[in-house]
Amino acid sequence: MSLVRIPHQLREEELLWGPSRPLETVATYKLANYRGNPIVSSASPAHSSDLGNVMTHKTSRVRSRIAPAGSPSSAARLAHACFNTFLTCSPLRPPTSARLWREHCRQIKRWTPGPATHFVAMPLKRGAKRQLSTSAATSDAQPASKKAKDPLREPHPFYKDAEEHGIVLRKYYPHEMSNDRARAYNDNELPRPIEELTSALADTSTARKGVKVGAAVVHWFKMDLRLSDNTSLRLASERAKDAGVPLIAMYIISPQDFEAHLTAPIRVDFTLRTLEVLKHDLAKLDIPLHIETVDKRRQIPDRIVELMGEWGATHLFANMEYEVDELRREAKLVRTFADKGMSFEAVHDTCVVPPGQLQTGTGKQYAVYTPWYRSWMRHVHENPDRLELFDHPNKNPSSAKERFGNLFASEIPEEIPNKTLSAEEKKRFRGLFPAGEHAARERLNKFCDSSISSYADRRNIPGDNGTSSLSMHLASGTISSRTCVRTARDRNKTKKLDGGNGGIQTWISEVAWRDFYKHVLVHWPYVCMNKPFKPEYANIEWSYEKDDFKAWCEGKTGFPIVDAAMRQMIHVGWMHNRCRMIVASFLCKDLLIDWRMGERFFMEHLVDGDFASNNGGWGFSASVGVDPQPYFRIFNPLLQSEKFDPDGEYIRKWVPELAGVKGKAIHDPYGRGAGPQVKKKGYPEPIVAHKDVRERALTEYKRGLGREDL
Q1: What share of the chain in percent tops pLDDT 70?
Q2: CATH level 2 (architecture), domain 191-415+428-529
């Protein structure tokens, strides 16, 4: 191990990643085996003639940069060349700006201790300009003629972490984008997917109006699996009736979409069962439901065009989905249809107020829920038609069965190959979650009759059945948010959204949260691309400790309220909302594990998995999302347990090892004298000490936010 000086005109703090340090400060780097990529070995200047043993990667490139052995500057130039070769060889890309150079230096600090070469920043010559020159810093690493890379196309420096731990599925999606690219959406430098769709609709408006109705009109079901209050379905039905032709309903099963969207097997099963109900209800109206599996998601648009041709149809209707993939697919489909002399109408339906319509006084989009909700209520009061509900579709003419009789025989698969359940799971879940819009309506009426008035007082108690349990129906579209808000409002004596019964007001505001998160997807689309709503929070260095994550997933953390909640989700595919916040905060702040790993785990297990709501909830709990809790607000799992499950009923139900624990010890058995008792039952000790990890979380959040941006 040796000391070598770097005679480069860099401020020592640029090289040593931090506040100004005294000159001659020694920084230790482990320039070996970074992510399995050997780069530099320790070497002594005294043996500089044997340079072949110094480098273990890209040797020839380094040799060409080093002075002849014995020259006065050979050791220093060796160090300089090694450092620049690290920049070239490492998974991080060569810096193209001062802030990226800072990030390269900061990345070096992440290496684990080990055999190292020591570099020392040399004092600058008197009068030398103390500034960072990107071209100078990288001149040895890349040719001078090479163009600087576009920062909007470069991935975030931490992108490999996201891919190595399953956060970004490279089979379907690109690398995690840079913070610059995320901000480009905010600054209107990049078109939002919703703008691509609205532009396509505007550009083809005249052409679509001139399309004559063919042999049928088609409605494309997606996440709107109901007949009642379905905007697109009703519009398609009216167009078919006016033209005197049948209405055909269609649903495309995409295994790759289920995989890419991390859809839980229980959610897929719920969808298939809902399709059975939908098919039966449509048949009563002589409307066929064509169901087809398209193996490759990219082939869906072409297959739809083919089906339209087979049926002689020229008009397709569908309700918009607001995720990035779906908006872009529909924008292309609108133009494709127009080019082929057909019409595709994509309309708003999911939200009470379409995303983007509510703006601040300065014309900007809301980024905080409370003022958005006030604007939402005011808008609905001023536009009561927002809560008008659409009727069922019209019955088809008798000729429908004669011409399209084969479509009535379309079969619904019992399961999807990559999303299967065991026979026991199917039986259990079907008993817990009846599917279809009739079950949804029945559940809503029961909730309004028995629980909505006390919702404000009971909604945070996980052991109490005080919530509506409509989340899976809203996620699958078996009931509309308009129907929920309209029904609740009509139960209120004031017939208003912001007066009367407190429970009704609170529940309506919770339904509105779902609309708010859809609004966020539309205006800040990068949240669909594995980026936090606040891009600067992508600079936090998360942990990816496998054992801790496994303990969290299995409900074996030693924190009873956390373990009870996780086991509930694993067993029934659902978790109380208060518990979702508790376990999310614990994962991100007590364990400091990347929030996106928890976000994915939830989607893979929840029957009500909805990207917008799930992403919004995780962003709130991890303090990285829209309108989040401050990062320094960290849930204490013990206090949360004592406050919301005071008698421990919820814990005892889901953690049988603790069923025999008496009194307050249920919340902290090892800290309150019940350790020997629960240890015999196999219950683990706490995997972390909350007070210690709390300080660690605060430190890491501050460090991440204090970095010059990436």
Answers
A1: 79
A2: 3-Layer(aba) Sandwich (3.40)
Q: Any binding-site annotation on 608?
A: yes
Calpha distance 676→661 (Å, rounded): 11
Q: CA–CA separation, 29 vs 3, rounded Å?
A: 11
Q: Is 471 annotated as a binding residue?
A: yes
Buried (b) or exposed (e) across 477-510, using 16+ Cβ within 10 A?
Answer: bbbbbbbbbbbbbebbeeeebeeebebbbebbbb
pLDDT grade, residue 148 (50/70/90)? low
Contacts 24+ apart (CB under 8 A), 511-514: 511/474, 511/481, 511/484, 511/485, 512/352, 512/373, 512/376, 512/485, 513/369, 513/613, 513/616, 514/351, 514/474, 514/481, 514/610, 514/612, 514/613
468 known member of a binding site: yes
Please state, in angstroms and rounded to a whole number, the distance separating the CA atoms of residues 268 and 273. 9
Higher pLDDT, 413 or 123: 413
Rounded CA-CA distance 29/120 in Å is 11
Does 524 appear as a known binding residue?
A: no
Residues of the chain with CATH 1.10.579.10: 535-706
Whether the CA torsion 133, 136, 142, 143 is positive or negative: it is: positive
Is 513 annotated for ligand binding?
Answer: yes
Q: Is 276 annotated as a binding residue?
A: no
**pLDDT tens digits, 477-530:** 999 999 999 999 999 988 889 888 999 999 999 999 999 999 999 999 999 999
Q: Domain 535-706: give its CATH code.
A: 1.10.579.10
> Exposed/middle/buried for 334, CB within 10 Å: 0-12, 13-18, 19+?
buried
| Residue 326 burial by Cβ neighbours in a 10 Å radius (0-12, 13-18, 19+) | buried
470 is in an annotated binding site: yes
SS3 category, 164 = helix
- Gyration radius (Cα) of the chain, Å: 30
Task: Please name the helix (run of DSSP H) or strand (run of DSSP E) that holds residue 292, with its range, or none.
Answer: strand 289-293
What is the distance between the alpha carbons of residues 636 and 220, in angstroms, rounded to a whole number? 47
Give the residue, 708 or 505, on which the prediction is more confident.
Answer: 505
DSSP-assigned letters across all residues of 317-356: EEE---SHHHHHHHHHHHHHHHHTT-EEEEE--SSSS-TT
Q: Specify the pLDDT at position 147.
A: 60
Please check the confidence at residue 474 and state whether its pLDDT lies above 70: yes
With CA atoms as reference, report the closest residue to 519 among 627, 678, 671, 652.
627
Cβ contacts of residue 243 below 8 Å, gap of 6+?
Answer: 213, 217
HEC letters along 193-234: HHHHHHHHHHHCHHHHHCCCCCCCEEEEECCCCCCCCCHHHH
| Across 635-661, average pLDDT | 97
Distances (CA, A) of 357 to 363, 364, 372: 10, 10, 11
455 annotated to a ligand binding site: yes
Residue 511 assigned ligand-binding role: yes
**CB atoms inside a 10 Å sphere around CB 628:** 19
pLDDT digits (tens, 9 = 90+) for 286-344: 999 999 999 999 999 999 999 999 999 999 999 999 999 999 999 999 999 999 999 99
Residue 457 assigned ligand-binding role: no
pLDDT: is 399 or 209 the higher one? 209
185-205 residue pLDDT tens: 999 999 999 999 999 999 999
Active site residues: 510, 513, 542, 577, 595, 618
Instruction: Report the candidate in 273, 2, 230, 214 with the shortest Cα–Cα distance to residue 117.
Output: 2
Domain with CATH 3.40.50.620 in the chain: 191-415+428-529
